[in-house]
Write a sequence for this structure.
């Protein structure tokens, strides 16, 4: 909104030329979301507590009943609000990538909000039916990707370890594969949200990584490739001496997707403000509202940048947590025995004697390693 209103004034006032730069608006979006959420979180926590608190599973970690049962949930609702408000202020609202990303994030968050509301209002740990939730999520994901293909989104994808093969999935393939990536990421993020700060840390790391990938994939940013004997760049301004960064890294270019970096930056700011209140001992949980909304946004960013396969590494901890649940359920139904003390896996570690903060901090460290590995795959080809 500010971009659309103020940038046209740059003809008369040079200062407003700043709004032309995605990098400037990314910084402002992050700061706006951070301040907005920090300001409102105390009030939101109070309102959420009036609705009800987070119900705790009877078969869960015993001490959670004492330490977490009185904590309000659905704090992700303010994260979503901060991201939307900040993007409306600093984003290009004519960009269809931005609009689709906000729509997916908000709709996934609404599904999560209904889940959270039922849990708080009726102290029902089950919430919305799993089948209904998945049906809604797949409907949103498939519809969003199909819409993007109508606007010309490339249906090829980047593949790790090779730069010469970028298979074209076609519209149907891109919709189906991308939909599973989005829904899988959202629900894996949801399963990871079980300890104070456990989910939001990897979300912030992933958002920062995808922000950089979106900016690189969409921005026609020239880099100098010829350096003179003096150590200074030569041929500056000469097209023959510069290439687009995406071409240099041999990744798919997605014109226009750089604007989603503004949304990712807003997510970073809002997520940091949430962590302020979610750090152990947490004053609020993000709930399904936050985990589904944030996970859906991360999955959508991976699809928009055509990095679905890379996201399997980037979101490796989310994926591992989801697999631990699948393995546990599969094995228990067939043998009556458990593979882990409790699933998801972070609860297995807790029951094994790990302190909550130790699990969380080591999860963050592993997330950083996986983010670096995902970025390294851009060059290991």
């Amino acid at each position: 909104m500010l971009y659309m209103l103020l940038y046209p004034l740059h003809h008369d006032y040079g200062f407003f030329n700043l709004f032309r730069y995605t990098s400037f608006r990314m910084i402002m979006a992050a700061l706006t979301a951070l301040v907005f959420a920090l300001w409102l979180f105390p009030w939101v926590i109070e309102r959420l507590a009036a609705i009800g608190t987070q119900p705790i599973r009877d078969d869960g970690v015993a001490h959670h009943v004492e330490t977490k049962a009185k904590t309000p949930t659905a704090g992700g609702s303010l994260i979503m609000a901060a991201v939307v408000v900040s993007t409306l202020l600093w984003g290009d609202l004519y960009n269809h990538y931005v609009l689709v990303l906000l729509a997916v994030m908000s709709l996934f968050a609404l599904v999560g909000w209904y889940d959270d509301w039922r849990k708080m209002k009726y102290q029902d740990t089950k919430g919305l039916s799993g089948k209904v939730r998945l049906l809604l999520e797949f409907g949103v994901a498939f519809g969003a990707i199909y819409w993007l293909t109508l606007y010309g989104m490339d249906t090829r994808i980047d593949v790790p370890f090779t730069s010469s093969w970028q298979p074209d999935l076609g519209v149907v393939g891109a919709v189906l594969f991308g939909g599973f990536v989005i829904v899988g990421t959202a629900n894996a993020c949801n399963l990871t949200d079980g300890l104070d700060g456990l989910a939001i840390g990897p979300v912030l790391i992933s958002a920062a990584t995808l922000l950089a990938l979106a900016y690189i994939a969409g921005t026609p940013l020239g880099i100098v490739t010829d350096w003179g004997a003096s150590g200074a760049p030569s041929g500056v301004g000469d097209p023959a001496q510069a290439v687009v960064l995406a071409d240099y890294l041999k990744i798919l270019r997605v014109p226009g997707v750089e604007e989603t970096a503004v949304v990712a930056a807003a997510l970073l700011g809002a997520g940091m403000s949430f962590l302020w209140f979610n750090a152990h001992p947490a004053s609020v949980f993000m709930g399904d509202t936050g985990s589904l909304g944030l996970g859906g946004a991360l999955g959508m960013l991976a699809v928009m940048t055509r990095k679905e396969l890379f996201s399997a590494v980037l979101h490796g901890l989310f994926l591992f947590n989801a697999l631990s649940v699948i393995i546990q359920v599969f094995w228990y139904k067939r043998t009556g025995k458990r593979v882990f003390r409790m699933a998801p896996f972070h609860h297995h570690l807790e029951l094994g004697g790990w302190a909550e903060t130790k699990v969380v901090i080591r999860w963050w460290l592993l997330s950083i390693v996986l983010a670096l590995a995902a970025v390294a795959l851009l060059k290991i080809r």
Q: What stands out?
A: Strands lie at 222-224, 242-244. The chain is about 65% helix and 0% strand.
